[in-house]
Structures are given as structure tokens and as C-alpha cells.
């Protein structure tokens, strides 16, 4: 751990501060002020946010903590740096304008040591994200818990209000900026819960109900919203509510599986966060003013190009919880934590824990249905665009680069969860920090138990299952789906066609001799196929005979099941009698 007055701390602090100021100025400068460099604004902003992410990653890897005496307002600590890594992805995608400035103010708020400065900067960022009307007044109230003591009796109630308001703010966005209020809420909620410690049952129930209400509202929005951007923001709101529930179980209760709940939260803030960023980017820009607007716009990134549809499918798979992608590691940790919590708790507390986990499973099902709705709508839009033959303009695929980078980072985090846990371990206060180790780089592991999960082993198991299914289909001649029949032209079905349609003559072409054909003629195998060879024919006949015998044996066993059970019981009884002597 690096000391507060070291040169490295000063370098990271000054570098982050300068890069944030540069990103804010570049995001708000008008085009005429940049003159010839206006065309490079996006690249310059991307470089600045990339530098912020690199500095934050280095600081988190080296466990840099503390502040410096010459700068009383800004400093560095453990929870800040991992959140800045995720904020760098968000800022690089949002880029310019007032929403880009909101990213800058959020990053400066994460660096603020004073709660008052944090509330001022984070509240201003939320105002920039708010639309006209009540949001501009209500959203800044969400950061009030940062300005009151953690031991105040009003703190849990204000935390519930903060969760509800920020969940509303997340669900109202229509692009990657939806992750800004989610990041602010996750950062503040984890810090305050770590300071308050174990809460009483009433306060725990209120926080769990608040997070569950936000998650349920996001799932309902994902199932009912008429636009793709609204569906994606609903999914982001559901993810924020789920992380609030996990944080409450990890830091505010005295359950046995607190470390497992905490690990699930760290993993949930990794690959799913980045996959949601990509999904929000692909679904952004839909016009809600038009009541008759289609689900996806005519130039939507998710449907205009084949690459966009591939990236959308990857984002949906990362968020679906299928093994081993993204949310499956979170689900595995949640199941481990639920088992430990239910076994080691009192009956009433165990029952409540089981009910919370059942509700979380129901919310996950609703979220998967929302993802399925998004994927089916993109597929229908693709068929419509193919029928209309409206190709995307040149250079349109470059807009997919931010989503591709986010998904690449999400896949890396999902495949290397040990490194991500070692990097994010200071995001929330725990009993013992995880140190980086090459031995645990590929696995999800806990501090208090020896149980671990390796996603790459899950990939290998899936490949083995697919290979065995293909082998069984080849040997037994059984496939669960009908094999597609290739459609051929009319002149390929029979003899040569002289005239086709309106009398157009079919030109006959002589195929050149192929070396493989010459070799077959030389060996006398020109008109033979491997099926007609005696060895292959006899082997296939023996395989068919063995398959029919197997099916007849299985059918007889199914018909005489009770007789077999009695025979096995008698044989076991006799064997036991002789063995006992």
C-alpha cells in the first residue's frame, strides 16, 4: 500500500485531475473554437477517457490510498479507483455535450474527500442528466445521505429515498448515460453501508424492499416499453436494484454468506455493467416524441448492419446468465451465498432469506424475458430491412466501435474473474482483501472458503456436451431438429434445360479437370463413394444391428421394469448374505 505523501500518489492525483479538467473543457467547447481540430474532437475525448481509465487501473492494482497535504479537497482511496475504471468506459461512449460534462463531474465527485463537495458535484451531474420538470428538482435530493452522519437515525430512510430516486433516474435515460446515476448510487450506497455496519431488521427490510421495487419497476418497463432505448434503460434500472439488494445482504446483515454476497456484487459491477453499456449504446437515439415510432428506428445501430446484430446478440447473451457468460458467475455466487445463509441462520431469518432469493430469481426471469423481447424485435426489424433493401451508409459501422470495445472488456472480465476481483476488492469494505495471484486469475474464489468456480472449465464442458451430441446423432442417426434441405435450381434437378422462362437459353459450361478426379480415375474409384466400400458397408450394417438390439433391449427393460427391480433386490439380498459370512 502506497503512503499518502508518496510521489506516485501525487502523480496519479494530478494526472486524474488534469485529464478530467481537459475532458470537461473539450466536451463543452463550441466547434468554432476548435477550428480545424473539430473533426478530431471524438478521438481526443476518447484518448482523455482512456488515460483516466489507465491511471485508475494502475492505482487500483497498486492499492494506492490516501490524499496529499497540499490538496485539501481531492484525494484517492480504494473505492474511488475501481469506479473510475467503469466511469472511463461510460465517458468514452457519451463523449461531448452536457452529458459528457456530467461524466466529468461524476469523476470529480468520486475523488472528493468532503461529503459536501461530493453532494455538490454529484447533484450537478444528476441535474444535467435530468429532463425538464420534476426530475431536475428531485434527483439532486438523492445525494443528501452523503452530507449527514452515518450513525444518524435518518440515514437508512434517506438511503431508501436515494435508491428510489436514482432508480427513477436510471430508467428515464435513453443511452449510456443511464449508467451514471447507477454508478453514483452504487458508490455512495456501498460507502454508507460500510460505515453503518449491521442494521436492525426493520431497516434491512426497508432497504431490501427499495432495491426490489427498483428492480421490479425496471423489469416491468423492459416488458412494456414501446421503444428499444426504454427497454434497455429498464434493464439497467433492474440491474441497479439487484445490486442494491446484494449490497444490503453483504454489508447490512449478519448472515453467514456475506462474503459470497459481496463477491456477487463485485462480479455484478463488472461484466454485466460493461455489457449494459454496450446494449444502451446500440439501442440509443430512439425518438419518443412520435407515438407511432417503430421499436427500432430506421438507422438503429442494432439493425442497420450485420455487425450491429452480432454485437446485440453478444450483449444479450452476456446479460442472460447463460454459462459461463457475464451474469452466470453472479448467479453462482448468489446460490452459494443463499445456501450458506439459509443453513446457518435462525428459522425465521432463513425463511426470509429464501423468500428474498425466490424474488430475485423471479426478477431474473423477467429480465431474461425483456432481453428476449429486445432480441426478437431486432430480428423482426432485420427481416423488414432485408425486404426493403436499405443498406447502411459508408462508415456507419465505425459507430459500433464503442459497443465492441465494451463487449470485449466484458468478455475479458467474465473469463478472468480472479483479476477483476483483485482489482475491485476495495470497492466495498470487506474482512480481508484479495491479493492478485496468477493461480486464481481464471477462477471466482472466496476469502473464507476453498470453493471456487472456473468459467473456462464450463466452456470446456459445454464443448464436450456439444461434441457428444453430434457424435450420438452421427452414430444413431437421431437429430432433434429436421435437417435443412438445400434449395437447388430447376436445371440441377434433372437433365439439361434448353429453355427457361421466356426462352432464355442456359449456357452449358465444361468444368475443368480437377486433380482429385484424375487421381480417382487412376485408382479405379471414380464412381465409388466411401459408403459403397465393403468395409464401410459391413461396419454400417453391424452398427444398425447393434442399434436395433439396443433399442429392443431398452424397450423390454421399460416394459419389465418391476420384474427387473425384484430380480436386482433378490440378487443383492443373496450377495449380502454370502458376503456377511
UniProtKB/TrEMBL annotation:
Residues spanning the membrane = 6-30, 42-61, 67-89, 101-130, 235-255, 261-282, 310-338, 350-376, 397-423, 443-472, 554-578
Q: Does the keyword Transmembrane helix apply?
A: yes
Q: Which domain of life is it from?
A: Bacteria
Its keywords, alphabetically, are:
Membrane, Transmembrane, Transmembrane helix
- Has UniProt tagged this entry with the keyword Protein biosynthesis? no
Name used for this protein in its record: Uncharacterized protein
Amino acid at each position: 500500500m502506497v503512503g499518502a505523501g508518496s510521489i506516485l500518489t501525487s502523480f496519479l492525483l494530478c494526472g486524474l485531475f488534469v485529464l478530467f479538467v481537459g475532458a470537461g473543457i473539450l466536451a463543452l467547447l463550441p466547434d468554432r473554437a476548435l477550428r480545424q481540430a473539430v473533426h478530431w474532437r471524438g478521438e481526443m475525448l476518447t484518448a482523455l477517457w482512456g488515460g483516466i481509465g489507465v491511471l485508475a487501473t494502475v492505482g487500483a492494482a497498486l492499492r494506492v490510498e490516501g490524499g496529499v497535504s497540499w490538496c485539501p479537497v481531492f484525494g484517492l482511496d480504494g473505492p474511488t479507483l475501481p469506479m473510475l475504471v467503469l466511469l472511463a468506459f461510460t465517458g468514452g461512449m457519451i463523449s461531448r455535450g452536457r452529458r459528457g460534462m456530467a461524466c466529468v463531474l461524476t469523476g470529480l465527485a468520486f475523488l472528493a474527500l468532503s461529503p459536501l463537495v461530493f453532494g455538490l458535484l454529484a447533484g450537478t451531474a444528476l441535474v444535467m442528466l435530468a429532463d425538464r420538470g420534476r426530475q431536475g428538482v428531485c434527483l439532486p435530493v438523492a445525494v443528501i445521505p452523503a452530507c449527514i452522519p452515518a450513525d444518524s437515525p435518518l440515514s437508512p430512510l434517506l438511503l431508501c429515498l436515494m435508491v428510489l430516486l436514482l432508480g427513477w433516474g436510471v430508467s428515464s435515460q435513453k443511452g449510456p448515460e443511464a449508467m451514471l446515476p447507477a454508478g453514483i448510487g452504487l458508490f455512495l450506497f456501498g460507502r454508507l453501508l460500510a460505515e453503518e455496519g449491521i442494521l436492525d431488521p426493520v431497516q434491512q427490510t426497508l432497504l431490501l424492499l427499495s432495491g426490489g421495487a427498483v428492480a421490479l419497476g425496471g423489469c416491468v418497463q423492459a416488458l412494456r416499453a414501446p421503444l428499444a432505448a426504454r427497454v434497455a434503460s429498464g434493464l439497467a434500472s433492474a440491474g441497479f436494484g439487484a445490486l442494491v439488494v446484494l449490497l444490503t445482504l453483504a454489508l447490512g446483515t449478519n448472515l453467514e454468506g456475506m462474503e459470497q454476497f459481496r463477491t456477487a456484487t463485485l462480479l455484478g459491477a463488472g461484466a454485466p455493467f460493461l455489457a449494459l453499456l454496450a446494449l444502451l449504446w446500440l439501442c440509443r437515439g430512439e425518438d419518443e416524441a412520435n407515438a407511432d415510432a417503430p421499436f427500432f428506428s430506421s438507422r438503429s445501430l442494432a439493425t442497420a448492419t450485420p455487425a450491429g446484430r452480432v454485437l446485440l446478440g453478444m450483449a444479450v447473451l452476456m446479460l442472460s446468465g447463460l454459462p459461463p457468460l457475464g451474469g452466470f458467475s453472479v448467479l453462482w455466487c448468489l446460490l452459494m451465498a443463499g445456501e450458506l445463509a439459509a443453513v446457518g441462520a435462525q428459522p425465521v431469518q432463513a425463511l426470509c432469506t429464501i423468500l428474498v432469493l425466490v424474488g430475485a430469481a423471479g426478477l431474473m426471469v423477467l429480465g431474461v424475458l425483456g432481453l428476449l423481447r429486445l432480441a426478437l424485435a431486432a430480428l423482426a426489424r432485420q427481416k423488414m430491412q432485408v425486404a426493403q433493401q436499405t443498406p447502411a451508409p459508408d462508415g456507419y459501422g465505425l459507430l459500433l466501435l464503442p459497443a465492441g470495445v465494451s463487449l470485449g472488456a466484458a468478455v475479458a472480465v467474465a473469463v478472468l474473474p480472479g483479476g477483476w476481483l483483485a482489482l475491485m476488492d476495495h470497492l466495498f469494505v470487506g474482512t480481508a482483501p484479495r491479493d492478485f495471484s496468477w493461480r486464481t486469475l481464471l477462477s471466482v474464489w472466496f476469502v473464507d472458503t476453498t470453493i471456487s468456480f472456473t468459467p473456462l472449465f464450463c466452456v470446456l464442458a459445454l464443448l464436450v456436451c456439444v461434441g457428444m451430441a453430434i457424435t450420438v446423432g452421427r452414430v444413431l442417426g437421431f437429430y432433434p431438429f429436421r435437417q435443412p434441405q438445400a434449395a437447388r435450381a430447376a436445371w440441377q434437378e434433372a437433365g439439361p434445360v434448353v429453355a427457361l422462362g421466356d426462352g432464355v437459353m442456359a449456357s452449358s459450361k465444361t468444368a475443368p479437370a480437377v486433380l482429385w478426379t484424375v487421381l480417382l480415375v487412376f485408382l479405379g474409384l471414380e464412381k465409388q463413394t466411401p459408403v459403397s466400400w465393403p468395409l464401410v458397408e459391413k461396419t454400417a450394417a453391424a452398427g444398425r444391428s447393434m442399434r436395433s438390439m439396443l433399442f429392443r433391449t431398452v424397450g423390454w427393460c421399460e416394459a419389465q421394469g418391476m420384474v427387473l427391480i425384484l430380480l436386482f433386490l433378490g440378487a443383492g439380498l443373496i450377495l449380502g448374505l454370502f458376503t456377511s459370512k
